[in-house]
Amino acid sequence: MRRADRLFALVQLIRGRRLSTAAWLAERLEVSVRTVYRDVADLQAQGVPIEGEAGVGYRLGKGFELPPLMFTVDEARALALATRLAQQWLDPAMALAASDAMSRVLSVLPASVRAEVERQPLLIAPVGLEPALGQRLQALREAAQARHRVTLRYVDQGERRTERQVRPLGCFYWGRVWTLAAWCEQRQDFRNFRLDRMEAVQVEASVFPVEPGRTLADLLRRETGHSTWR
Questions:
Q1: Higher pLDDT pick, 123 / 82
Q2: Do residues 114 and 70 lie in contact, with contact meaning Cβ atoms separated by under 8 Å?
Q3: Of 154, 179, 185, 180, whose CA–CA distance to 169 is shortest?
Q4: What is the DSSP letter of 47?
């Protein structure tokens, strides 16, 4: 990587996080920590408002703008491929947003790069979520974002039918299967539900509070110890 490209990438990395350590930056840029220290000092001397210090971490001060972002051929290929995956396996609203974002990226790429993106040999087969499942995913995602309780009619792996009121926390994709991570009001514990086993989903008007011990972060911490997937 040319030094000018590395300095540009360094600013991008620092701008994308609240605090970036020199060790993390060095790993991402594949250089030594000493090189990161030197590059940061050079950028600061040129007027780039990088705040922080060695041994603590760096962040970018407010009001700093970079010139319009440009992508390499491989970066553009990766974005295009990710967008095509999104169109097949995300809910309709997110798939449309991903497609619109990719259209903006393609519109500013040089013609040669755009042609390389369109010629890439990695293709996505036209299969994905069934329309009903996509709508269900969108309803659950939006409920989790707005913290609306949800009532589920669910069939578990033993073919038992239950009705649960849950606090939706997040949706996880496992490769052809989506699951909902939730706090179950009946069980007073975290539970995970496969979307393809849901017979009905009703989003309630009530908003659940953020309570310690019942959040997505709490679930993820617990999942490092054992699994609660049903």
A1: 82
A2: no
A3: 180
A4: T
Number of H helices, E strands in the chain: 8, 7
What share of residues in the chain are helix, strand, coil (percent, to 5)?
45, 25, 30
Quick: pLDDT tens for 44-100.
888 888 888 667 789 888 766 655 556 778 888 898 889 888 888 899 999 999 888
Sign of the C-alpha dihedral, residues 15, 17, 20, 25? negative
Report how far residue 72's alpha carbon sits from residue 156's, in angstroms, rounded to the nearest whole number: 46
pTM equals 0.67
Angle in degrees, CA 90, 92, 94, rounded to 5: 60
CA-to-CA distance for 69 and 104, rounded, in angstroms? 12
Q: Select from 111, 171, 172 the least CA-distant residue to 141.
A: 171
